[in-house]
Amino acid sequence: MSLALQTFPTVKDANTALQASGTRYLGGGTLVVRAANEGDVSVSDLVRVADPDLARIAVSGGKVKLGASVTMAAIARHPELAALAPAARAVGGPAIRNMATVGGNLFAPAPYGDFAVALLALDAAVVTADGEMPIETFLAGRDRSRAIVAAVEFSLPRAESFRFLKVSRVKPKGISVLSIAALLQRSADGTVASASIALGCMADRPMRAKAAENALLGCKLTPEEIAPALAAAGEGITPITDPIASAWYRAEVLPVHLGRLLLS
Ligand SMILES: Cc1cc2nc3c(=O)[nH]c(=O)nc-3n(C[C@H](O)[C@H](O)[C@H](O)COP(=O)(O)OP(=O)(O)OC[C@H]3O[C@@H](n4cnc5c(N)ncnc54)[C@H](O)[C@@H]3O)c2cc1C
Which one of 51, 94, 106, 168 has the fewest beta carbons within 10 angstroms of its own beta carbon? Predict the structure, then answer.
């Protein structure tokens, strides 16, 4: 079956074309073109946007704006985005990172979506032609979304307050058993003043570990004080099962790896 590709100068023009049945947006194509090659007949038309703004990284006044077409490779090598480089480098091997975009990662089902896990912990805003919305809201409704993501925006984390961990069985580029991102603000005495923890592979899309976040407040990052947060980490999770790991295994090892991340 043939696959038609149309290029538009603006998101607005492409948004109109995207409403036609069988039409999907083309980011880096690592998932959507693979699906078409593997015989997914629900995809007949692809649209893309040539606007160079979509491939722009802007870092200014502690705020970051990543255009949806920014690749994982571009993030990993950007001198001001060192805190995010581990999350970008977690996505596939070098060839995938050269193609894989921020916008596409937001739509990637588990076990993919490692960079989206980082964006969720950072409480990023997702920008479309209709305005912006919190990433948590976006992820909850992404299956119904027919709008092109133009960019994501978030506050640049300080390197010491942002932690990312991807657990995989095939090193260095296997898919995730699970991934965790945590943004932790601490008071002068070392107690956790605010915590945002996002999990990958603990549902079909990235999710926040809200019970663990609450249990961490006021704690010092010691094995004794984080124990209640680790015990709470499994609340609300419905891990995926795939050839890499079962849901049972993922749930069992989550507190182990969250503990390692918090104590690292
Ligand atoms: C071998 C291999 C290894 C991989 N390893 C990993 C990994 O370790 N971690 C990981 O997270 N992912 C991994 N992936 C999955 C994938 O490469 C990434 O998730 C990537 O970020 C997807 O982005 P893309 O631009 O290629 O998406 P595409 O394939 O272009 O698009 C994916 C979906 O998102 C939609 N979409 C894309 N951009 C937009 C936009 N701006 N607005 C609206 N809709 C949009 C498309 O229409 C499509 O439905 C891997 C893929 C392969 C093939």
Answer: 94
Q: Spell out a b/e string for 196-219, using b for 16 or more CB atoms within 10 Å of the CB, else e.
A: bbbbbbbeebbbbbebbbebbeeb
Residue of 99, 112, 180 best suited for mutating to test ligand 1, as the one with most atoms within 8 Å of CB: 112
Determine the Cα–Cα distance for residues 144 and 148; give it in Å rounded to an integer: 12
Chain-centre distance for alpha carbon 35: 20
**Residues 167-208: pLDDT tens digits?**
999 877 789 999 999 999 999 999 999 999 999 999 999 999
User: Other C-beta atoms within 10 Å of 222: how many?
Assistant: 11
The token pair at 144 is 């119904």
Q: pTM to 2 decimals?
A: 0.97
Say if ligand 1 is within 6 A of residue 175 CB: yes
Mutate to test the pocket of ligand 1, among 21, 30, 240 (most ligand atoms within 8 A of CB): 30
* Strand intervals (E) in 118-216: 125-128, 131-134, 149-155, 162-168, 176-186, 192-200, 207-208
DSSP string, 102-139: HHHHHHPPTT--HHHHHHHHTTPEEEETTEEEEHHHHH
Q: Which atom of ligand 1 is nearest to the CA of 96?
A: 17
Cα(first)–Cα(last) distance of the chain, in Å?
Answer: 51
| Encoded amino acid at 74, one letter | A
DSSP state at residue 242 = B
pLDDT single digits (tens) 84-117: 999 999 999 999 999 999 999 999 999 999 999 9
- Dist CA 195 CA 222 (whole Å): 15
